[in-house]
Each structure stands twice: as C-alpha cells, then as structure tokens.
What does this fold into?
Amino acid sequence: MESTDQIIVALDFDSRRAAEQVVDLLGDECRFYKVGLELLTAAGPDLIRSLVAKGNEVFLDLKLFEIPNSVAGAVRAAGTLGASMVTVHAMGGTDIMAAAVTAARDFPRLRVLALTVVTSMTGSDLADIGVNASTEEQVLRLARLADDAGCHGVIASPQEAAHLRHALGSDSLIVTPGVTLPGVSQAEHARPGTPRAAMAAGASHIVVGRSVTRAEDPVAALRLIRADLGV
Ligand code: C5P
It folds into this structure.
C-alpha cells in the first residue's frame, strides 16, 4: 500500500461538477476518494466509473442496512462499478454482514467494512435508542460481530482505533473518519483525533472531508495532513 493511499478524501458534495473540481485540483496528491449517499444520489454511478477509470480507488459509503438479499444486490452493484470499499451497518446483525461479504467475493478488490457506532453519537444517544452499553462497549461488540461475519474491517473513531486493533488483530482494516488537524474546529465529531494519533493507534486508513475539500487551498491542506502523518 502506498503511503498516500492511507488518506481517503471524502467528496461530500451535491454535484458531480463540485466533486470533480476538487478531484482535478488534488490530482496525484490523492488517489482514494469516499463517495457517500449525497453525491451518489446527486451525480449518479457514472461518477464512480469515471473516478475508477482515472486510476482512483473509491470507497462507496453506502451504509447499508437492509434485508440480506437487498444488501447483497447493492454490494454487487458497488463491485461492478469498481469500488474498493463498501459499508454496511453492523447494527443490522450477522446475516446482512455475511450477505455483504459473500456478495463481495466476486470482486477481488472490494472490501466490506462495518459501521459500528457513528462518530457523532454519544452514550446518551445510544441510551435514547435503547442500547444500554457505553459507546466503547457497543463499538467493541459490533466490531467483533463484524469480524465473525467475515467483514474485512470496521469504521471507527480515532479514539477507538487502539482498542479495536488489539481486539481484531493485525489483518483487519480500521478506517477512521472524525479526523481533524490540531487546532482546527472539531465540527460535530464527538470522538475526534488527529491523523497521526489515529494511525499511531492502529488505523489502516483515515478519512478527511471538509478540512481538505472546503479549505481555501485543498492541496496545501492535504499536505498538512501528510506532514502530520510523516508520509
Ligand atoms: O468531518 P469531515 O468532513 O472530515 O467528514 C468526512 C466523513 O467523515 C464524512 O463523509 C462522514 O461520513 C464521516 N463523518 C463521521 N462522523 C461525523 C462526521 C463525519 O463519520 N460526525
């Protein structure tokens, strides 16, 4: 894995034009993009094909939570587009995660990542939905469930990465959003951390969004992150 491939830039935009402007600007500085539901819905799947055709890797953040048959179909569609990563909610349970993993087998580069507890949630948010565990306990429980279901890794906050690396072993991918540079506003991330802290704790990849894409100079912002990582 090239060091720059540890950094995934989230294209959280409402149009293909806005997304491609940033991709063009970043050029060789970034080869791994996350496309979420907003951009996929607004721009359509052709954007994914185009990003892949230009040599980029795409993390398709579908956050699937559906019946297993529908999850499998969506994972196959992601694989057909050439995506490298796709997400499924671990809260949906073993059957949907196993269905995703089975569907991904036809696409050798496609990795299924499980979402545990989204980084904006706190313990009291969990209590509100009837989960009487701490965030840490719930993250660990869901990560183990995902691992047992055959998922290739998990999405986790920087603060959870060390715990999860210990629990899951060295092979699992641990992808951490909620990354902010020191001194930069932490927006709505409840469990943020710096890129360096996330990687040192055992993350395999970090996801950065607005601190790069909304920066006055996205290339400079990405270089700051790389400098923080020492890569
Ligand atoms: O905050 P930022 O713009 O860096 O967000 C990048 C990605 O991180 C988003 O696309 C979102 O999926 C994820 N994120 C998250 N929890 C938050 C905020 C963002 O998982 N609280």
About this structure: The radius of gyration is 17 Å. The pocket of cytidine-5'-monophosphate is lined by residues 10, 12, 34, 36, 61, 118-120, 177-178, 187-189, 207-211 (CB under 6 Å). The chain has a mean pLDDT of 93.
